[in-house]
């Protein structure tokens, strides 16, 4: 038996011995955690009293329609080369029938839209085609923003700009905790984000909201260790921040990455799709870096979008992202909405809870 499997079994045995007298709702913030939990089938082996809720950890799901509409407009009207991480291409917006509703549709209509896997690819395309304006549509969390900051700090060709839809994770979680409607008892903090920003960033969960919190990695062993930690903290009534991913996460994170984030970006209020504006939750280019701002370089025709912040009609992605309903409680789940015909962003992205649950075999009841 591998060490990791043995470790996972040990943690599971310890969880099963805990005296859980009522249901405990634990939110995992990270789409990667949700993928591991679902694909490994961990929910099925946990005590019934443990309810694990996917949270707002899918950057594609919360990317505002306005930003997607700007990206489509840039690609179709301004004739730029629009590059974006692959997931973004299929995310639909609420455009009237007959109009282009996604970057993939823009590409089918002749726009130069290309999926990329890294910022380096965006730079390479701009260098290879110096006669074309290349716009890098950046939707992601701190783990995406830090490499983009490094890319800009290292120097990029003049024909490359960025269309920013980058977000910070913790302000959305704090908004959820302050609001209270998701009725959470504990939190599993995101492992990838914590590698960049440090475990300490999540201390506010225990400090200000008196809730157990643990940073987890992506193996069954690490996730179950974090789960055991928060359940036990709850039973003992002494919440604290536990780091169950010490192999990669330090207390203060990656200082160089954080320095680059501070150098290149300002922290600004930002719109989250289906949620609204969250203060201090977005990245904006600061000072000299604004010369790489696609919104300043190109004319984007802003059209009035009366329902721009909304999810598509009938789509409950906002409630899913906020942990208020499980993905399969959306009435479109697995019926009108599937990965091959997604209605909302949560069914598009590899980090979207609806997509993950569908891939893991959850079917409508
Ligand atoms: Fe939105 Fe589809 Fe998920 Fe329903 S199943 S919340 S329509 S993405």
Structure report:
With 365 residues, this protein is an alpha/beta fold. 38% of the residues lie in helices and 17% in strands. The protein has a 5-stranded parallel beta sheet with strand order 2-1-7-8-9. Helix 8 links the parallel strand 5 and strand 6. It is globular and about 65 Å long. The two termini are 36 Å apart. The model has no long low-confidence stretch (mean pLDDT 94). It binds iron/sulfur cluster. The site of iron/sulfur cluster (SF4) has 14 residues, from helix 15.
Topology overview:
Layout: H1 3-17, E1 24-28, H2 31-39, H3 42-45, E2 50-54, H4 59-62, H5 65-76, E3 81-85, H6 103-108, E4 112-116, H7 119-128, E5 134-140, H8 142-154, E6 160-166, H9 170-179, E7 186-189, H10 191-197, H11 203-209, E8 213-215, H12 220-236, E9 241-243, H13 255-264, E10 265-272, E11 276-285, H14 294-297, H15 317-321, H16 353-359
Parallel strand pairs: 1-2, 1-7, 3-4, 3-5, 5-6, 7-8, 8-9
Antiparallel strand pairs: 10-11
Bound molecules: iron/sulfur cluster.
